[in-house]
Write a structure and sequence with these properties.
With 219 residues, the chain is mainly beta. Strand 9 and strand 10 form a beta hairpin. Helices cover 7% and strands 37% of the residues. The strands form three sheets. Strands 3-4-5-6-11-12-10-9 form an eight-stranded mixed β-barrel. The chain has a two-stranded antiparallel ribbon with strand order 1-2. Strands 7-8 form a two-stranded antiparallel ribbon. The chain has one domain: Beta Barrel (Sortase, Chain: A).
Length: 219
């Protein structure tokens, strides 16, 4: 799981250290190769890279001020979790939620906070320790599906899926996932595709691309 994205600079003057997109993307795609329990063989879905990605037109809402996320809810797939901040390990590799707590999702804290301009990134396992993970059904999301993220400021940011992607880990789309965006966006990332027994990991990543549409009343 060890790769070495080197952090540099501060993002937005809030003390967040920005790693280069290509290195962070490589780190996350490789680290997420560990999101299955050791020895498990589960074929989640056929690779979808040969098909044009389904996409929906979503009207982007105005950006929200910075506020760290506290929870995520993806109604279509029954995925709800608190969000823990994910930073960098002492060797500057990217941290991920423990595979021994597969239902825990995490927010990469050196990406924008959900609702700010730019791509916020949330990571979760597909499975671990022989159990389903928080994003076990991420592949089932479709354009138009809703994603809700609670924030420390009490606002609930509402995102709508624009498209789904299933790239091979050897061709992780770093620019699409981590590149600058004109408005507030969100990416959900997990593992998927067929299982590589030799590498003991899945061959692909499942990525949901979503856009902020506004806020909803909490409760």
């Amino acid at each position: 799981m060890s790769v070495h994205p080197r952090a540099r600079g501060n993002r937005g003057g809030r003390g967040r250290v920005a790693a280069t997109p290509a290195l962070v993307a490589l780190a996350l795609s490789l680290v997420l190769s560990g999101c299955s329990a050791a020895g498990e063989s589960v074929d989640l879905a056929s690779p979808a890279s040969a098909q044009p990605p389904a996409q929906t037109s979503v009207r982007t809402s105005a950006a929200l001020p910075p506020s760290e996320p506290t929870w995520i809810d993806v109604p279509r797939i029954g995925a709800r979790s608190s969000l823990i901040p994910l930073g960098l390990n002492p060797d500057r590799t990217v941290a991920v939620p423990s595979v021994h707590q597969p239902m825990q999702a995490g927010w990469y804290q050196y990406s924008p906070t959900p609702g700010e301009v730019g791509p916020a990134v949330v990571l979760g396992h597909v499975n671990g320790d022989g159990q389903d993970g928080i994003f076990a059904r991420l592949r089932e999301l479709q354009p138009g599906d809703e994603i809700l993220i609670g924030r420390q400021d009490g606002q609930v940011a509402r995102f709508v899926v624009q498209r789904m992607s299933q790239p091979p880990k050897t061709g992780f789309p770093a620019d699409e996932v981590y590149g600058d965006t004109a408005g507030p966006e969100l990416r959900l990332i997990t593992c998927g595709g067929s299982f590589d027994h030799a590498a003991r990991s899945y061959r692909d990543n499942i990525i949901a691309f979503a856009t902020l549409t506004g806020t909803v009343h909490n409760g």
